Amino acid sequence: MKHLLAIAFVCVLTTCSDKKAEDAEALVISIEQFRDQNGVIPTDSEIRQLYERLDIEYSESCPCYQYIDENEYKVYWGKSLGESGYYDSRTTEWRK
Fold this sequence. Notes:
The protein has about 100 residues and is of the alpha+beta class. The protein contains two helices and four strands; from the N terminus they run H-H-E-E-E-E. A four-stranded antiparallel sheet has the order 1-2-3-4, covered by helices on one side. Helix 1 crosses helix 2 (about 45-55). The N and C termini lie far apart (about 30 Å).
């Protein structure tokens, strides 16, 4: 029984992590579209509208948006306990 609970817990974490990664990818696409239309990336107050359009909850549970300056940002999300994935706009690289 304990093994079944452990397997179910890992499956739930994996599914949540996959959903967060998908949400993060959708968010990055929206941010880049915003940049194409406006010449800059969204500020912290503007990012909330993108979250709403994508039906992603804007909270600490992620994916999280980190505004660095008008040209640079990061999007990150929790993968598992102590592990996260992120997108760095400066390098345009994903770490999943």
